[in-house]
Amino acid sequence: MIYENKDQMKKGCENILACDDDDVRILDEGKFQSKLIDDLIYTVVFSPDPGTKEAAAFLIRRGAAALGIMSASIQSLYEAMGRKEVGGFTVPAINLRGMTYDAAQAVFRAAMKGNVGPVLFEIARSEIDYTSQRPQEYTCAITAAAVKSGWRGPIFIQGDHFQINAKKFAADADKETQTVKNLIWEAIESGFYNIDIDTSTLVDLSQPTIKDQQRTNFSLAAELTTMIRDLEPEGVTISVGGEIGEVGGKNSTVEELQAYMDGYLEELKKRGDDFKGISKISVQTGTTHGGIPLADGTVAEVKIDFDVLEKLSEISRLKYGLSGAVQHGASTLPDEAFDRFPATGTAEIHLATGFQNMILDSKKFPADLRTKIYDYLKTNMKDERKEKDTEEQFIYKTRKKVFGPFKLELWHLPADVRRGICAELERQFAFLFDKLKVNNTRGIMDKYIKPVDVPLKMPAALKG
Questions:
Q1: pLDDT for res 287
Q2: The CATH number of 70-358+417-448 is which of 3.20.20.140, 3.40.50.2300, 3.30.70.2750, 3.20.20.70?
Q3: What is the pTM of this model?
Q4: Which stretches does DSSP call E strand in 352-393?
């Protein structure tokens, strides 16, 4: 059910949730988990009334907190990895572009079965736009999925590639920087306590020295880091990531990492002695976001330079106390590649397009809806088709952009269809958790992560 106004929602919450002093008490946990949480998240996503949406979001986040489900920063675990107190696993960071509520439940189910601790749920600046998922909605979908699936404990929500657009920056640097700052503010308010700053688009390889090439990158990263530190809630140290090489570009080097980190730390110190820096560093090792589609729509095999990844991870820990290097664009790699990431000390791996492909290519996905989606692409995205693209390549490269326009249809697929697709996703999540060695890390997570209960202001629709 989608609540269209506050009175309808209050009636739905009767004898299940109670609001007192800017907080929520759970009167009937079973009904909250079995039905009301569904109604609340569908209201956040689809209600026509902004006040009702805001109230439903509050009830989800504070109701979850009453169950011990809280948004958290992974910072203290990454600091322990930097000190080499823990290791041997690679933290998966999962981008959910569509069917987010159902897909996140599949993640939590796989995590609980494997006794998995740290898993990041993330969304990039570009994805926020083309999937029509603002930070508040994304946080609520993940939080509601935790409630529904029976997860208890911290959840890690991350801003992925909060990226400076190089062309827009060249045209108006202040305006483009402010756009990213506004997104950071919105994300933190929504419970994103892990944020990856991506200013690597500003690396200028025409400059004579590596430090000069990285200068705008590390200077702006330091500026955005200080802003994050000013905005983070009391008691929370947001985990911030930096990036030295744009994904899809040339492979990163030790010299680039050192130039970036030394310059970044110098810039950070100028702004104050007490500003904590980044906890991880994203590098380029040969991947491309989404993979490279061939003429028949299949994805070309990618060769990752694991030696570079291992070397950069090790020096980032030894010299700078970081958790290690971060691998982007990995979800379309062959299955046999994934166990090499923990073996090389990779701290974190970002996984997105592979799950999108599983949803859209599933045999359980309605054929008529798939046809409708592809017809939409051919009509509305035709300007993005390159001259040499086959139809299969064009569709593969653009279909990520259907998750916003077709959100209503995807969230309202028949229950048996959603269950079938998510069972396939759950098996893949379980496979990846095993390969990345995060099974049986729940105890490690609980040792290092102590979530802070960040209060929220009760919306006007719930008062009185």
A1: 54
A2: 3.20.20.70
A3: 0.94
A4: none
